[in-house]
Task: inverse folding
């Protein structure tokens, strides 16, 4: 059995965080992104605001993905936040999903 993680602070937050509501992802190819996340169990949800440039998906656990069409792709499909060795830009670098196999 895993031991509980060690807390790095004793400061109590001013609110109780109860879950991860959604993750916004800028994508270069909306159809490919919908297909990819669909294979991970996400289903497209119509929220009345969907367009060709904005889609929402949700999985059975309630996690939402808000997909946005990126204005431009990167040369050689490089990730500007992680793939450049000389400079590191601020931003959310990735999400990690647990799957059964």
Result:
């Amino acid at each position: 059995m895993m031991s509980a993680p060690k807390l790095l602070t004793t400061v109590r937050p001013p609110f109780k965080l109860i879950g991860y509501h959604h993750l916004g992802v800028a994508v270069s190819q909306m159809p490919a992104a919908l297909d990819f996340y669909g294979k991970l169990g996400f289903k497209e949800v119509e929220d009345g605001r969907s367009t060709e440039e904005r889609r929402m998906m949700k999985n059975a656990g309630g996690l939402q993905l808000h997909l946005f069409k990126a204005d431009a792709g990167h040369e050689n499909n490089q990730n500007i936040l992680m793939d450049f060795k000389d400079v590191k830009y601020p931003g959310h670098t990735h999400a990690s999903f647990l799957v059964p196999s």
